TrEMBL record:
A Pfam family that the UniProt record links to this protein: Nitrate_red_gam
Spans traversing the lipid bilayer: 12-29, 50-68, 88-109, 129-148, 187-216
Membrane topology, record value: Multi-pass membrane protein
Keywords from the UniProt entry: Cell membrane, Electron transport, Heme, Iron, Membrane, Metal-binding, Nitrate assimilation, Oxidoreductase, Transmembrane, Transmembrane helix, Transport
Protein name: Respiratory nitrate reductase subunit gamma
NarG-like domain location: 6-225
Record localization: Cell membrane
Gene name linked to the record: narI
Species for this entry: Hydrogenophaga atypica
InterPro entries, per the entry: Heme-iron_electron_transfer (IPR051936), NarG-like_domain (IPR023234), NarG-like_sf (IPR036197), Nitrate_red_gam (IPR003816)
Amino acid sequence: MNTLHNFLFNVYPYICLSVFFMGSLARFDRDQYTWKSDSSQLLRKGQLRWGSNLFHIGILFLFFGHSVGLLTPHWVYEPFITAGQKQMVAVTAGGIAGAVCFVGLSLLLHRRLFDDRIRLTSHRTDLGILIILWVQLVLGLITLPFSIGHSDGAVMLKLSAWAQGIVTFSPDAAQLVGLDWPYKVHLVLGMTIFLLFPFSRLVHVWSGFGTLAYIVRPYQVVRSRKLGLPAGLNQSPRRES
């Protein structure tokens, strides 16, 4: 068990991150035409609209909440809020976002499983990644009562220390010894999602972040051809989206 524990929380994170980055780069380089979300918006538009909006709102809040909460050193927020108070804020905000995301993802999963037309046009990886995300959300919600039972913030500090150790290449699986099982399974499945990321429709997330580049993109100069147009009718430089 010690060997498995060390592998899962000292070695496995780097395997997942390596595949996540290198696999995404390889897919973009070799299979750009598969770099899409495979939308089926022509079918069951109402359910898709509600499910997609709720899912994306919830998952974005959870992603950035986990990132900031786990990777922010304790000394940054210690003058303003205690570890226990921060954990309760995380439980409350994460619980609301998790519930919103769970409802949205359940609608999307129900739509793909119980509509024959959508199911027949769905790839197995589409269904697989939705099921894995659904299970991950359930596990995350299961951890909430355990977090409330550890209101002193000790669990949050252990998880933060482990996550920051991964980022700084000084992992310490001993930080997670004695942690309740839902946390450990939640962490392992979360890392597995990063492992599967390049081989699923999730790669379109990169495109979402890539659109931020348009904020700093320089103007594109467009000029009309010299076709004998009257003076003053030539197009002026403009920004195109």
